[in-house]
Amino acid sequence: MARNEWINGYLEAILDVGTRTEVVESQGNADNSKSSIKNSIGNRFDEKLRFEKFQGREKNEKLFSPTKYFVEEVVNSFDESDLHRTWIKVIATRNTRDRSNRLENMCWRIWHLARKKKQIASDDVQKLEKRRLEREKGRDDAADDLSELSEGEKEKGDGSQTEPPAPMNDKMSRINSEMTMWSDEDKSKRLYIVLISLHGLVRGDNMELGRDSDTGGQVKYVVELARALASTKGVHRVDLLTRQVTSLEVDSSYGEPIEMLSCPSDGCDSCGAYIIRIPCGPHDKYIPKESLWPYLPEFVDGALSHIVNMARALGEQVDGGKPMWPYVIHGHYADAGEVAARLSGALNVPMVLTGHSLGRNKFEQLLKQGRLSREDINSTYKIMRRIEGEELGLDATEMVVTSTRQEIEEQWGLYDGFDIKLERKLRVRRRRGVSCLGRYMPRMVVIPPGMDFSYVTTQDSLEGDGDLKSLIGTDKTQNKRPIPPIWSEIMRFFTNPHKPMILALSRPDPKKNVTTLLKAFGECRPLRELANLTLILGNRDDIEEMSNSSSVVLTTVLKLIDKYDLYGQVAYPKHHKQSEVPEIYRLAAKTKGVFINPALVEPFGLTLIEASAYGLPVVATKNGGPVDILKALSNGLLIDPHDQKATADALLKLVAEKNLWLECRKNGLKNIHRFSWPEHCHNYLSHLEHCRNRHPTTRLQIMPSPEEPMSESLRDVVDLSLKFSLDGDFKPNGDIDAATRQKELIEALTRKATSDGKSSSSYFPGRRQGLYIIAPDCYNSEGICTETLQLTIRNVIKAAGSKSGQTGFVLLTGLSLPETRDALKNCQINLEDFDALVCSSGSEMYCPWRDFEVDEDYEGHIEYRWPGENVRSMVKTLAKLEDEAQEDMVEYMRASSSRCFSYSIKPGAKTRRIDDLRQRLRMRGFRCNLVYTHAGTRLNVIPLFASRAQALRSNRLRPFPSYLSVRWGIDLSKMVVFVGEKGDTDYEDMLVGLHKTVILRGSVEYASEKLLRSEDSFKREDSVPHDSPSIAFAEGCQLHDISTALESLGIM
Predict the structure, then answer these.
(1) Among 65-74, 583-592, 796-805, where is mean pLDDT lowest?
(2) Cβ within 8 Å of residue 167, ≥6 positions away
(3) Which residue in 26, 298, 711, 809 could disulfide with 280, CB within 3.0 to 4.6 Å?
(4) What EC number is given for this enzyme (predicted)?
(5) Which residues make Cβ contacts (< 8 Å) with residue 185, sequence separation at least 6?
(6) φ/ψ of residue 978, rounded to 5
């Protein structure tokens, strides 16, 4: 019954708080009836029962609520059976007093709240279990398919397979047997490497690590990686792309477009490393990473422009004018991983991904804690949007760099897009030259982060240099050297600064578990008597102005210091500079102290390597990367971070046993070279060279921008005809050979230009000042294209007016080419007026000025990882729901092609949403893009890198003089996309980026968007900015409506 006494105490406290609130709010209203009092209590109680959802709330929203505190204590600390017994007891002992009635009512409410919380937790557990079973089913299906070949067929390959065996240079052999290590002999190479780290505040010097949750170890890691790669022989230039921040709340250096990280040394064929800051999102705001998701397409467009310009410049500088494309694009964290995936698809360049911390692992941990519901977790951390970004990164990446094996097995193994057993099986098949049946899994490699040892001096490795007497001795007559300012700042906290120092350095984050460390120190008397404790917990001015989680941690630290009376034994300085961190490590080493990382889970543990480099033994969590670090360094002890006694015992053992301390110090200094940046870079480039062999060798060519001579029109004709000849797109006719026919073509076009007095370039794509891209999805309820599309096309072309010769027109549609012709054949629209037709949801491109030939180069560009026939029948099986008939979805052969499998859905039939179907395909190793079109009556399955939105970006780099060629400098900001208020399931992708968008109200009556995402997924506002200056609305499809919208965008 003791538990019930606690419950009663909490309930009485809630009533007391409520009573005091009533007195303040309703003085003079003492005659209110009991029922009104009960209703007011109930309403106010409902308002109190809300968990705080976001740590960045305004200060006035963070006011402490005693009612909320006691309610959470009751709900989280007691079982519903205890609450039920309390309710029964209240009923049995109630009397006529109003307070007893209120107690009964409130107890009943809290009991039901606890039951609801328990039900929600149970539902979440069931969803996780269901997903786990679905993942296992997908893996089993893939394993069964890959096991169908006999051993003999495996050895020689199966010639009947639609997917050809991998070529010799595409074989995926075991890395430890056939991978060659990067060496100085590779210095003749000139590699251009692009790193992306999007969020946080990134700069080369005086990094503000710990300023907020977005500016932590990842920032330090990517900056040092960029510098280290740039100093590696064979690397010509390294660009670190990040977001430009021009907010007044941060330093102006974060608004500089370019910052040099390292200068090329004399005689070195290198340009060095640079931070390139690309604007995206609100220009005057520094926003957290959770709010950046809708602006990623803007970053992609800006990064694409920078890379293209840099490839051209580097090519002119060192490669005779041939563009120097990036050797790799490396995304760090989920947001940059998605950006890298988009850029990889647009440029046909290999991609690498480093997760740093993973969303699915965090999501499951938060669910198990039970403090936040699934909806609260999603709204606070945008966790589902983050997970989808990580899954997309897995779809596109060649290689995933991890810090530890634990990260591979226990964290990446949670994702739909990766399974370690299936990856190994596919790798064996590639080695043998056997078809993988269209399946793909990225390669996971463990490459521990490096460290910059330039700050480590020879004095740091000298034995016996741990005595502070020469520096802070009591003898005032001896000549003492000046000590670093940060030493004085720390030592002022200590009664006896000579004692060994236990050092912890991290952000004030609950995950870092510093409160458990403080409790362990406070409750172990021998440890307190032997050592001091220093807590470096970021920088702060006022705890109350910090984020909620940080302020809670720091407040708890102060309370624990007071509770255990640790004054004079614990240091917790308010400020430190990043450049002073080495001095902090030195101070701990000179006192013969110990470094500790007690985090609940540590993905890697870079601070452990830093501390080891200065000769500090370490104590670290057994969860995560420290296991591998201590195995390599052999310089410390692992602990269970939840066990206070084990933590205290490990610290006491290392501090008290001098021989053990000295042995750990020697081991750390001897083995630390394994974590140097040169070692990291050599491993990184070796693994990358090995994995790049599987990527297509085709590369896009940038046509150089010609000068403008007097014979401009003739030069355009010659360039165009030469491209026809080189590309093989011009075919001889009759007895006239290709050269003669080409000459006649040039003469004919020249005569045409002369007679009209116009440049011949007006008759061909190119020479465009802008592009109008028409993409409304106009269908009726049966999925038939309506006349609204014809009306829209006519009026958009008319809106161009006198600029029609300078403005190109492109049609983006989910229709196939025959369907497009049928839809427009009875109207006054000439398809030859279009520069290009992008059909079948972006999987096909046709050039009307080339007799509607399919663009084979575009097909080759998007075919990467296309499973082809292997996925054809699988889609029908996976797309239908369990209780739906197989014949509800049939392939629509008239709209299908080699790069698009189109399926017709019967009216009323139910199919899986896009996110659910994509998940099931990923579980089986298939990487595809999926689009519902024709008002939800058609499903198009297309290659991963094919989409209407991606066609705008990838094809602005086309090697032939097409509508988006960089040769004529058409910028994405000069493109206008016309869409409806809704559309196909790829509709949201058309709204975002640097291009302008005109939304035509009333143009689309029926759409497919309801089939895009399930209720548990992220929301539209996580992908599309709610207030974009690049979006304008037209009240209809009439000419004046369109013209008015264009004027509002500054186009007309």
Answers:
(1) 65-74
(2) none
(3) 298
(4) 2.4.1.14
(5) none
(6) -105, 120
